[in-house]
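Quick one, probably user error.
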């Protein structure tokens, strides 16, 4: 298999042809930079924080955000990284080692906050307690607390935007999950930039890897020789998302372009969904306990925390 652009050996076969290492890296970086420009994900004077875990997606997006800033002569002093340590034994501690090394090597200041410090329990300890009363899977607890801490600490760090490593596969899964669950309000918050309207209590999240398939991100991280482990969260197989992921992978294998098709169709419908949401009365308020954003009196993170305290 030869590269369609030169005669070197190809490392990947894409819909529009085969690419060698050099041409794949160029293609991938170009795609990410185009996404940033087209959707205005990064502004010149903005303070940016990349949400990182030490995995391939977050380190790729951190690396490319820095590269984008340098390429456009934007000072990188406004760039920081923020990680949430959920407390997942034999997993997160290893990715955090990779993360610390990566941030030191690339000279990006790193802040790590943890479930244990902030909410009193690690995910490993918390979810069986919450699970007993509310039959919540680890991913439900993890998702709520992660988003909560990211938003809270991004605000504390005074950043304008949080950059995340969500890729095309993640987005296609999220779209299908929301459709299967008739969650149009949540679907309206997807897209390359999060949220429907600006709100003081929420920091906007943006996704430069929006059009990059998971296998492309993995290959990019491998070819760039990022020193990371390509492991998955041990709980990932327990979540609803995992079933959707398997279904989409099966479809993609049979019908190439399925995931891209889902995301493109969704983007065509997104303005309609967002307009519909804008007409709904705003329900965002401050949680009466922690003063963070909530759509009811007490936010989901505090509800879960209370369940643990009362157990
Ligand atoms: Fe890690 Fe769900 S808790 S993937
Ligand atoms: Zn080539
Ligand atoms: Zn709260």
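Nope, works fine. Designed sequence:
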């Amino acid at each position: 298999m030869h590269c369609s652009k030169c005669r070197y050996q190809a490392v990947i076969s894409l819909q529009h042809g085969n690419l060698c290492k050099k041409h794949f890296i160029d293609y991938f970086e170009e795609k990410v930079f185009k996404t940033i420009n087209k959707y205005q994900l990064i502004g010149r004077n903005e303070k940016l924080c990349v949400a990182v875990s030490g995995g391939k997606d977050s380190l790729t997006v951190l690396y490319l955000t820095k590269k984008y800033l340098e390429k456009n002569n934007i000072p990188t002093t406004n760039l920081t990284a923020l990680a949430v340590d959920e407390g997942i034994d034999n997993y997160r501690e290893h990715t955090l080692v990779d993360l610390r090394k990566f941030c030191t090597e690339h000279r990006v200041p790193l802040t790590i906050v943890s479930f244990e410090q902030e909410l009193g329990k690690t995910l490993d300890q918390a979810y069986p307690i919450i699970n007993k009363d509310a039959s919540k899977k680890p991913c439900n607890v993890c998702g709520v607390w992660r988003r909560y801490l990211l938003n809270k600490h991004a605000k504390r760090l005074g950043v304008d935007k949080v950059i995340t490593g969500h890729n095309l596969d993640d987005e296609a899964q999220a779209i299908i999950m929301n459709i299967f669950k008739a969650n149009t309000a949540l679907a309206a918050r997807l897209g390359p930039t999060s949220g429907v309207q600006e709100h003081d209590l929420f920091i906007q999240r943006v996704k430069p890897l929006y059009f990059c398939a998971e296998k492309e991100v993995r290959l990019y991280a491998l070819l760039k020789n990022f020193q990371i482990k390509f492991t998955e969260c041990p709980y990932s197989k327990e979540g609803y998302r995992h079933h959707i992921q398997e279904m989409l992978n099966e479809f993609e294998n049979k019908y190439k372009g399925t995931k891209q098709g889902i995301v493109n169709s969704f983007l065509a419908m997104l303005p309609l969904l967002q307009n519909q949401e804008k007409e709904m009365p705003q329900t965002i308020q401050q949680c009466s306990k922690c003063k963070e954003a909530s759509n009811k009196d007490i936010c989901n993170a505090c509800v879960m925390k209370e369940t643990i305290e009362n157990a």
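The pocket of zinc ion (ligand 3) is lined by residues 287, 289-290, 292, 294, 298-299, 301-302 (CB under 6 Å).
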